[in-house]
Amino acid sequence: MLPQIGKVDRATFDELIFPRLGKKDKTVLIGPQHGVDAAAIELPDGSVMVLAEDPTFGMPVLMPHFGWAIVHICASDVAVLGVKPRYMTICLMLPPGTEDKVLENIWKEIHQECQKLEITIVGGHTGVYPGIAYPLNGGCTMIGLGKKDQLTPASNARVGDRVILTKGPAIEAAGILALQAEKTLTKKFGKALTEKAKGYFFDMTVVKDALVAAPYAHAMHDATEGGLINCVYEIVAASGTGVTLFEEKIFIPEEIKAICDHFNIDPLISISEGTLVITATPENTPRLLSDLKQNGIPAWEIGEVTVKDRVFIRSDGKREELTPVSVDPFWEAYFSTLEG
User: Fold this and answer.
1) In this structure, are 108 and 182 located in the same domain?
2) How many C-beta atoms lie closer than 10 Å to residue 82's C-beta?
3) Tens digits of per-residue pLDDT, 178-221?
4) What CATH number does residue 20 fall under?
5) Overall number of domains in the chain
6) Which of 42, 144, 156 is nearest to 83 (CA)?
């Protein structure tokens, strides 16, 4: 059964989509897989083209920086394969009645962020269509060029690798909910905490994280729907390995914990664009952590890739099976802020 909102689940993907992928082509090095962020295609000269496709839902709270979100969310999916994003196409759909200034602001921001990340816009489509309430990125394709030995897909984790987390969990959930419910949260927690939580909006990118980590990483994946737990599960499922994950090693910033507690959602399973999960050898992990922190990106070692069992050890020592997240609690919390 399809979800009421958000990505289709693993079972739907495996049953309906994965068996029907058109003509097989041996140049496809990395094709569609649940939890793998981008594709990789081998080119005639032996280099690889990495490409990813993403929509961006035009929720009202995103609109002041919708262009920023489009570019960084799409670029992140290429960067996690260890390749720098280089080219972009976009399908920007606008509802009837959209003012010229709205399009101008969105497009200026897309242009500015592409300039900062050294990405060239090479095509796309922009138009006005009925049936949508807010501007919608109907599909942004991001492309990068690199070498085969650069690739760091989620399917490349290896037994013995350490699991590294950047920034903390629930980055996206906390940032968006803080913006959406600013008045209520300011009244409850004060202006300082709420402003800090709002600032996580601009942490909803892993482009920098991934490009810093790439020289040391085996596998990388950003924690979108289902949050940190789902992200780790998708890595080990794609890699055919196990994992031991330690709750006590997962740092949750005070303001993220406060926002999640207010909405009664679990930060470990809430959408977290901006959180990068990396696997790397024990030998490379100290240098990886050091390089991330030197670049202003906090990071922690939170577990280890194992042969088979997928275990989550709670802070009280209780051992649980690590399983995929079926429902991300963020969406119910977000739509609750729109009521009334």
Assistant:
1) no
2) 26
3) 999 999 999 999 999 999 999 999 999 999 999 999 999 999 99
4) 3.30.1330.10
5) 2
6) 144
CA–CA separation, 296 and 130 (whole Å): 43
Q: Within 10 Å of residue 182's Cβ, how many Cβ atoms?
A: 17
The parent domain of residue 137 ranges over 10-150
Q: What is the CA radius of gyration of the chain?
A: 20
- Whose structure tokens read 């990886």? 288
Domain boundary (87, 118, 150) is at 150
Angstrom CA distances, 105 to 1, 78, 108, 203, stand at: 38, 25, 5, 21
DSSP calls for 152-219: --GGG--TTPEEEEES-S-HHHHHHHHHHTHHHHHHHH-HHHHHHHHGGGGG---HHHHHHHTTT-SE
Q: What one-character DSSP code corresponds to residue 65?
A: G
What are 247-275's pLDDT values in tens digits?
A: 999 999 999 999 999 999 999 999 999 99
Residues with Cβ within 8 Å of 149's Cβ and at least 6 positions away in sequence, in order, are none
